[in-house]
Amino acid sequence: MTYDLSATPAAELEVRIAQLQERLRQKEVQAALIVQKTDLYYFSGTSQQGWLYVPDTGEALLMVFKEFERAKQESQLVDVIPLVSPKKIPDQLQLMGLVLPSVLGMELDVLPVNLFSQYQKIFADAKIVDVSTEIRLVRAVKSSYEIDRIRKACALSDQVALRVPELLVEGKTEVQLAGEIEAYARSLGHQGIVRMRLWGSEMFYGHLMSGSSAAVPSYLASPTGGEGVSSMIGQGAGYKKIGRNEPVLVDYVFALNGYLSDHTRIFSLGQLPDELMQAHEAMLAIQEEVKKLAVPGVLTGDLYEQMIALAEKKGYGENFMGVGDRKIRFTGHGVGLELDEFPFIAKGQTLPLAAGMVIALEPKAIFPGKGVVGIENTHLVTEQGLESLTTLDNTIRII
Amino acid sequence: MTYDLSATPAAELEVRIAQLQERLRQKEVQAALIVQKTDLYYFSGTSQQGWLYVPDTGEALLMVFKEFERAKQESQLVDVIPLVSPKKIPDQLQLMGLVLPSVLGMELDVLPVNLFSQYQKIFADAKIVDVSTEIRLVRAVKSSYEIDRIRKACALSDQVALRVPELLVEGKTEVQLAGEIEAYARSLGHQGIVRMRLWGSEMFYGHLMSGSSAAVPSYLASPTGGEGVSSMIGQGAGYKKIGRNEPVLVDYVFALNGYLSDHTRIFSLGQLPDELMQAHEAMLAIQEEVKKLAVPGVLTGDLYEQMIALAEKKGYGENFMGVGDRKIRFTGHGVGLELDEFPFIAKGQTLPLAAGMVIALEPKAIFPGKGVVGIENTHLVTEQGLESLTTLDNTIRII
């Protein structure tokens, strides 16, 4: 099976860079130096190691440490040059007739301190400020090119979930089932690595847990935790054997050519208790209501509160998104090249929704000792509300 | 299949913390605040989100944000308490009768700038210095408990490689074969996530490439690159179909309960050209010579130069560890909870080998357009030289 592996088009990169430049000018930052792998890919089309210099006006310059020939091929930017060390950046910029910035923007939300110190020495006369918010705001609204790529990832998420009933057998461990599903995903082109931006967060393919183990909380900012395989990886699938009459949560990301889809479906070998079936129906009802409410202009913090209110009204205030002090304070998140993109449908968020944002909404009900039910789909924000990009039947699949 | 999932023993944690404390005193740092996930696990036994405060003498204190009950169960430290915010750390320390440090050590090689700024505000009167080298030096020498865990991971690396001949079929894509091998690894308890410390580095299960695609260079600090599935993930297995008479490189990490084994074996459907067979034999010969040379006290930089000299003497100076300016400047690396631990067998390194270090040595020969041959095993440094912990037949497996 082959997919479109072609480079990000030049016109696409141009628009992205122009949007960033506008934000740089608003913030009075004269240039950004982009070094984080995902941002670099977004603005240049390559993940090879290098530095993308974006002045507040004019052409961006991609300087590549390793691997130059590959980056040159992958990036449709005009100015791509090799560079042996970041120490050479100022000379290189001056050689090209550029004035060195007095205020330089970098991704200070992810850049480690020791590296920052190196860049501060290299740009000794510049004040280095954080432009990660500006970058993330540009990235939050997806172009039609990006939406098309996310649609493809979404279709494959549905396809992976369709395979689950064939592989789900009583007595199989969570990790064994996970491995089989993951192998199938990989054969469809899943890139393996799922990137998260938040420092200290990590995600394998996703969360596959059964019954009580899905309700075990973890360090992760997620309504589900999971026992995991050890105290080193304290989340996700573990050695629990999957039994009958318990919800099997398959919350998997499909990562295709960089773009992600986030997706949860519930399966069960045999009937589930009414309590769980009803809670699942309630989560679906919340999803349907939110899809109409979530129009451009709505504040993401308000949308979060509306979802909480809906859950309470339906009698699931206690179980919604966790129990007691283990409740997480969000109900959805932006999805794109990273799993934790802007916007966050979370308590106190003031960012308004905009057409073209792509968000994963995950109304879930947690029943300690019993399991987790609920749904997650990846949606596009449109003028009419949310359009679901993952479309596989949302009901619990009883096998 | 079940493994020992028990917590890191208290005595083990005690020794590790005492070693760090000695280094803190030498550096005149009054305390370390450990926040990076892997270091936290190493010194406390849990990966849940929190802060480990290690004064230069006395008991360490683990403060847990999320998930407290889980961390309390996993960590065998005596002092484990819940804490809602890092802002409360100074109050908490003073409450316990501790004097706030004037010099505080943190992991500045990995800690992002914005988080550092928060900690600097919290410890407003302290100078925050980097103690990542001290932490990495403690972690570089493995205890018998750790060596035992790495041995288990190594045995599973061998077991995974033994499965390859059954799955290797002409015309299968690299990613499809990769997915199948990965599913098998996962069924044996592979934790999925493989952690690297170097910022901007990432690794899935490892590298599986065939023929020419193994010789495609990438951004990664590795002799092999790989086409990868897209320009977003510019390394590793891609969509190339595996053919006959070309080397299939299976360079996989087994990650079991945190500990890693790094391991490369070469397979081929049918005979390989003599040129590649001979180069492989030369790499094995280099490995055997280095195993005798690598005794405690030898400088890692010198060991690197010895390997280069051996490769040149055997006529592989051009192909060893890359070609032309794509050569990487190392031939091995420490392995433990992360894939890029101390020591590095690399140009200019002055760290001497010590008994108890665990290193992956990977003499490889790169032939652009043809493929990669060579070997990688995980070895324990002993007084008599290297003991290989991965023991599966090192020769090319012709199928």
Automatic annotation (TrEMBL), chains A, B:
One Pfam family cited in the UniProt record for this chain: Creatinase_N
Top-level lineage group: Bacteria
GO molecular function: aminopeptidase activity
InterPro entries per the UniProt record, alphabetical: Creatin/AminoP/Spt16_N (IPR029149), Creatinase/aminopeptidase-like (IPR036005), Creatinase_N (IPR000587), Pept_M24 (IPR000994), Peptidase_M24B (IPR050659)
Keywords on record: Aminopeptidase, Coiled coil, Hydrolase, Protease
Native source organism of the sequence: Desulfopila aestuarii DSM 18488
Name of this protein: Xaa-Pro aminopeptidase
Domain Creatinase N-terminal: 16-141
Coiled coil, from the record: 10-37
Domain Peptidase M24 intervals: 149-383
Signal peptide start and end residues: none
